[in-house]
Amino acid sequence: MTSMTTPGIVPGRLSAEEYARHFDDLYPDYDPHEAMVAADRCYFCHDAPCITACPTEIDIPLFIRQIQAGQPEAAGKTIFDQNILGGMCARVCPTETLCEGACVREMAEGQPVEIGRLQRYATDRLMAREGHPYARAEATGRRVAVVGAGPAGLACAHGLARQGHDVVIFEAREKPGGLNEYGIAAYKTPHDFAQAEVAWVLGIGGITLRQGMALGRDITLDGLRAEFDAVFLGMGLGGVNALGVAGDAREGVRDAVDFIAELRQAADLSALPVGRHVVVIGGGMTAVDAAVQSKLLGAEHVTMVYRRGRERMSASDHELDHAATAGVKIITGAMPVAVRGNGAVREVEFAYSVDGPDGLAPSDERFRLPADQVFRAIGQTLDGAPEGLVIEGGKIAVEGAGRTSVPMVWAGGDCTGGGEDLTVTAVAQGRDAAADMHARLMS
Asked: Is the dihedral of CA 31, 33, 38, 42 positive or negative?
């Protein structure tokens, strides 16, 4: 945590009313009439491209027709049959590049059916109903260990428990939820929705959660393999890439993921210090979330800087436009060369980047940005992979539905190389691994 005594980084820049307004729900829920109107815009395509664009292959026309028929709980069940974390995905999925981006209405009119908000409407109503919509199959006597209570681990655990297996989830942090709890902007999932969703998922039964248990520190892969019939690894990415420039360790420079996690866990946002001049280095969703939330906390000047062009940024155009609307300045085609200051950071020096035969390199053209707080958001790395696993590109190599190089060990989510680091992709991988694990366990 950045010291509150660092010059320029102070808490309480805004009033209580401003904090409440800035971090309230970004997209409020539909009321029944609004949901009906939105559902009426769907063409109910026979070969719906929105289904193909969804990593979890939700039958989108079907659930929208169920909403249109006045059956939102049935619509929620259709969604959860494919994506047990459909409530969170309705809030955080980049729908503009997935289902809504493929919508026929988008192609024809530039205004897609609001699939994400309709999905939230349906899932919220089913989750609010008493009782769990799924029941466990007859007990199989098999025990499975799941490492990580993030989207992949939760989806896998639910799928296995539903088939009658007993599941133990080992989670390193104090709270379950993974990225959904610690890594997403607070205004996207307010009112402790991540924990409510975890409790709902675990409501099927047959799942034991053990918190404060980290792989490599408290448990080992060999130990889990000896105790359980199968293991699923969904621990995400624990390491963060460094800037690799002079002054990277100056006071006021920190990882964006730590800042977002601290904000998500803060009981009082007025006690969270933020700089007056904030620079965020990176072009992905983590960079956007750190930049926008810095602005919402009261930072006066926030700048995102990315080394390549805007078309290469992994954050969607929708999120980048939202950042710009929030007052974030976005600079592309520039890379940091030094973090300057006397102890604490005072400015960051950048060079405009050039793409040559040996890759991206700094040019001789330089500029400096004043900064009393700098956030690194240039990617995360796998931290402490167990021995015996094949690692490719810095992540766990998997085949098929998440099978690793170690017998009876599967993996999914951000710690593997097969996804786009999205919640919905992690859910799909955990779900598919659970189905494959069940087939192997019962063969």
From this structure: positive
What are phi and psi for residue 40, nearest 5 degrees? -65, -15
Rounded distance between C-alpha atoms, residue 183 and residue 202, angstroms = 21
How many Cα atoms within 13 Å fall on the side-chain side of residue 331? 17
What does the angle CA 127 – CA 132 – CA 138 come to, to the nearest 5 degrees? 155
CATH of domain 143-238+382-442: 3.50.50.60
Identify the residue whose tokens are 């027709």: 65
Convert the pLDDT of each residue in 265-309 to its tens digit.
Answer: 999 999 999 999 999 999 999 999 999 999 999 999 999 999 999
Angle between helix axes 60-68 and 32-39 (nearest 10 degrees) is: 130
**pLDDT, tens digit, for every residue of 151-191?**
999 999 999 999 999 999 999 999 999 999 999 999 999 99
Does the domain at residues 240-380 carry the CATH identifier 3.50.50.60? yes
Q: How many angstroms separate the CA atoms of 289 and 185, rounded?
A: 5
* Distance separating alpha carbons of residues 420 and 433, to the nearest angstrom: 17
pTM for the full model? Answer: 0.94
Q: Which of 311, 295, 312, 313 is nearest to 303 (CA)?
A: 295
End-to-end Cα spacing for the chain? 50
Q: For the domain bounded by 32-128, which CATH number is listed?
A: 1.10.1060.10
Q: Could you tell me where in the chain the CATH 1.10.1060.10 domains are found?
A: 32-128
Q: Indicate the burial class of 318 (C-beta count within 10 angstroms; 0-12, 13-18, 19 or more).
A: middle
Indicate the pairing of strand 239-240 with strand 253-255: unpaired
